[in-house]
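Q: Got a minute? One more chain.
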Amino acid sequence: MNLLRHLPNTLTLCNLLFGVLAFMALDQERIPLAMILFIGALVGDALDGALARRLGVDGPLGVQLDSLADMVTFGALPAYMLYYIGTHFGGGSLHAELIAIPAGLSAVSAGLRLGRFNSDKRSREYFWGMATPAGGMLVASWLWAHHTHQTFGLGADEMPLLLVLVPAFLVVFYQVGLKLPGLKSPKRGLITLYMVAGVIAIGFLLHGAIAVFVGIILYVVLGILNLLLRWF
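A: Always. Here it is, folded:
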């Protein structure tokens, strides 16, 4: 029995496990642990599909497991993170219900995005709409910026409307079919992706996690500009 053939699905299940454990960590207000678990889930998600293709064991079970894990880790968990930000760092400026509903809708939109992804026949050289891991990274970085007190004017207490605008951003751009570059993209797409990643990395060194939050928004904005410029 070749145990390697089960490794991709094992990584997918680790993604799911880490996502569930991150919920529990946040419930105990252990934000650093939740971030570590979220990063672990990201690594599992990044490796499972590539490894499955490399080993020639990609199949329908892996596809369904991947969507299930992503729904928990990059759909439901970010929604809870948004609610956590509003209730713990929002300064009480918005009622919990006004935070919960937009946050919940972001998870619904993520679920629709994942369901459509499995049946989408378009080329996988690009992401057609914002990928749910990118949305999860946006929210997780915003939470970490609050935890480290490095929001630089973009905190929930300073701009309470962001507790509505951020989930609204996710709801819209999970569904709008912008062509966004990924690691499988042709040269121009890769150049764009590396430029954004470089800006985010420099910003992170200078200003912390809020640079990831802003950088992912920039990534989507470049997708909007590409509709006019046709760069990638």
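A: Strands lie at 126-128, 179-181.
Q: Perfect, thanks.
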